[in-house]
Amino acid sequence: MDPDATALLQRLLLERPIAALATLHRGEPAISMVPFVLAPSEMQLLIHVSALATHTRDMLDHPRVSVLVTADTDGATSPQALPRVSLVAEALPLAPDGQAYLGARERYLARFPDAAQTFELADFSIFALRLQSARLIAGFGRAHSLAGESLQAVLRGIPA
């Protein structure tokens, strides 16, 4: 992957605050919107979700999920050329009494301070979406697939 595509992927994951989360719901695909935080050193996205949301039960029943992060529309770029990355991940709930949870909570609140009140609610939990692969569309004819070490290399270039 060239340096421009690498920088684009890093920007999408660092700067975009919202992703589309695809889960399996009662045997059917379902998509919802989730704010996320990247934890690059752990190769994961962090989401804070309510047990009342169907996607939370879906992730517990079927941990394999997909996430789509898109660039902001500028009005000049064709929708088909809009930069975006699709990620395949395994969703794992973090135990609220664990060290990983505390670090994830701190990272999440640093990005979304308004979420502090939802951390007081008993039905909310943090899931780590452990990244397994990525498909970056950087524009027309500019597609890149990453997994394993190549994905880790791109994420290592992002400040923790």
Q: Could you characterize what this model shows?
A:
It is a single chain. This protein is α+β, with helices and mostly antiparallel strands. The chain has one domain (3-157): Pnp Oxidase, Chain A (Roll), CATH 2.30.110. It is 27% helix and 39% strand. The protein has 4 helices and 8 strands. Strands 1, 2, 3, 4, 5, 6, 7 and 8 form an 8-stranded antiparallel beta sheet that branches. The chain is globular, with a radius of gyration of 16 Å. The protein starts with a helix and ends with a helix.
Quick rundown:
It holds the Pfam family PNPOx_N. This is Pyridoxamine 5'-phosphate oxidase N-terminal domain-containing protein. The protein is of the alpha+beta class and 160 residues long.
**What is the CATH superfamily label?**
Electron Transport, Fmn-binding Protein, Chain A
Poorly predicted spans? none
Helical coverage, percent range: 25-40%
Strand coverage percent: 35-45%
Overall CATH architecture: Roll
Biggest sheet statistics: 8 strands, antiparallel
Q: Could you please say which CATH topology applies here? A: Pnp Oxidase, Chain A
Number of H- or I-type helical stretches: 4
Overall domain count:
1
CA-CA gap between termini: 22 Å
Order of helix and strand elements from N to C terminus:
HEEEEHEEHEEH
- Tell me the radius of gyration: 16 Å
Number of strands: 8
CATH structural class: Mainly Beta
Secondary-structure class: alpha+beta
> What's the pLDDT, averaged over the residues?
93
What is the general shape?
A: globular
